[in-house]
Design a protein that fits this description.
By secondary structure, this protein is of the alpha/beta class. It folds into three domains: 10-76, OB fold (Dihydrolipoamide Acetyltransferase, E2P), CATH 2.40.50; 103-139 and 268-428, 3-Layer(aba) Sandwich (Rossmann fold), CATH 3.40.50; 147-250, no CATH class. The protein is built from eleven helices and 21 strands. The chain has helices at 82-85, 98-115, 121-127, 129-132, 225-234, 271-283, 301-308, 321-330, 344-348, 367-377, 389-401; strands spanning 14-23, 29-33, 36-41, 48-55, 61-71, 134-136, 147-152, 158-161, 168-169, 195-201, 204-210, 239-243, 247-252, 255-260, 291-295, 313-318, 337-341, 356-359, 381-386, 405-413, 422-428. Strand 20 and strand 21 form a beta hairpin. Helix 2 (98-115) runs parallel beside helix 11, helix 6 packs across helix 7 and helix 10 runs parallel beside helix 11. It is globular and about 60 Å long. Mean pLDDT is 91; it is low at 1-11 and 228-232.
């Protein structure tokens, strides 16, 4: 199975030995073979590795997986995640010493911001990014994830998906979930093909089984297969509670939220409080206007922090009915918070003019239409939170094109043992 999910034949596989020279966005090391750039999963910069080239479909680069580390980096350690060590697609950098991993992520983040966001080193220096780099959210090690998703194999056993494959790794637990979240799941049996959601809330553990998606018709070779698969998985499917309640209690500060077991909540246990605190610190001197927007605001964590900081009114917009319902319940007694369910760009265009806008879009980013809507509203301060650095950099470029200037930038190792980074930027004009 190739890295894009397509089946590979023997002719597609090439063995090679090369020396890597850097790290790319996505967690792959960069090397060269036969004059061509090769992205290598499972390698670190400066290593001599024997690789298996698995994808030669692109004229500009190939993709490979490390088969043998001939000369390892000093930053390499034994894999911390048993599931990833046995082929799981969960913790793709669990073989990197944590401090070194954050150093690599800092370099990758800076490179992406330069190339895609057109930010300069002086701008990054002035923002504080170079001083802090990618910061830890908690102690190094396992046990940070409060919500995780597993998959049932053809025997009903729960495990993680293999890297870029539909097969399931069982018998080797991922190290990321908090202590006790996966205890005993190995003895349970689920409907083959189902998804298992495990969440640790303030009220204990909750386990839900989501029924398998309806089969997709058509050939895997069909160009629209991926799109059909995404639509299929996005469709509503029956949920059966195995343990706990279908609503999970979460707390940030003095507030409590009830979130559906399959609803969104930040994965890292320290993330909600840390991100809210960072947003408040970034806008603390800008609360001279009465109105703030919290776009893609979900249950209203940032809205609550803004209200606590003295915002007179916060308008929360999100398309997810469950998240909006949770916000309404939590802030039922606070008339300063106004919620809207709907498309963010269309809804925001009709809101009162803001002084501050906070955006926390999904991995796909906000995009040009939303950024144009925000800029047209004329806020003096925009805070952008992102879990995809490439889309983050793209949207920062859109904002700078509208006359906004980067004031501060912080990045967090919110997904330890993986290549992912969470970033928060504050821009003003």
């Amino acid at each position: 199975m190739g890295p894009n999910g397509a089946d590979m034949t023997d002719v597609d596989v090439v063995d090679a030995e090369l020396v890597t020279s850097g790290m790319a966005n996505g967690g792959e090391a960069v090397g060269r073979f036969d004059g061509r750039v090769v992205f290598v999963r499972g390698a670190l910069p400066g290593e001599r590795v024997r690789v298996r080239i698995v994808d030669r479909s692109n004229d500009r680069f190939w993709r490979a997986v490390a088969e043998e580390i001939v000369e390892p980096s000093d930053d390499r350690v034994p894999p911390a995640c048993p599931a990833a060590a046995h082929g799981g697609g969960c913790c793709d950098l669990s073989f990197v010493e944590p401090v070194a991993g954050r150093r690599l992520k800092t370099g990758v983040t800076a490179d992406v911001l330069r190339r895609i966001g057109s930010l300069t080193d002086p701008q990054l220096e002035e923002s504080g990014f170079f001083a802090d780099g990618v910061q830890a959210l908690g102690p190094d090690g396992a046990g940070w994830r409060v919500r995780t998703r597993l998959f049932a194999d053809d025997q009903g056993r729960a495990g993680v998906h293999a890297w870029h494959a539909s097969s399931v790794i069982v018998g080797h637990e991922c190290s990321a979930p908090v202590d006790g979240l996966l205890t005993g799941l190995g003895e349970l049996r689920f409907r083959p093909g189902s998804e298992i959601v495990a969440v640790a809330g303030a009220d204990g553990r909750h386990i839900a089984e989501i029924a398998p998606p309806e089969p997709v018709l058509g050939s895997r070779a069909d160009r629209r297969h991926v799109q059909r698969t995404r639509r299929m998985r996005a469709a509503a499917r029956p949920i059966t509670m195995v343990e706990g309640d279908d609503q999970v209690t979460h707390r940030v500060g003095e507030r409590t939220w009830r979130i559906g077991v399959n609803g969104f909540w930040q994965a890292h246990r320290a993330a909600p409080a840390a991100y809210a605190r960072t947003v408040v610190e970034m806008v603390a001197g800008d609360m001279r206007d009465a109105v703030a927007w919290d776009l893609y605001g979900g249950a209203g964590i940032y809205a609550g922090a803004l209200l606590d900081e003295s915002a007179a009114q916060v308008h929360v917009v999100d398309s997810d009915a469950g998240a909006i319902g949770a916000a309404c319940a939590t802030f039922a007694e606070d008339p300063r918070l106004v919620v809207y369910q709907g498309d963010v760009a269309a809804t925001a265009a009709d809101l009162p003019k803001p002084g501050i806008v906070v955006l926390d879009p999904p991995r796909t980013g906000a995009g040009r239409a939303v950024i144009d809507t925000v800029a047209a509203a004329g806020p003096h301060t925009v805070v952008y939170i992102a879990c995809d650095i490439g889309r983050f950099a793209r949207d920062l470029g859109f904002l700078t094109a509208h006359g906004y200037h980067l004031r501060s930038l912080r990045a967090f190792d919110a997904f330890p043992g993986t290549h992912h980074v969470e970033a928060i930027a504050c821009l003003t004009r």
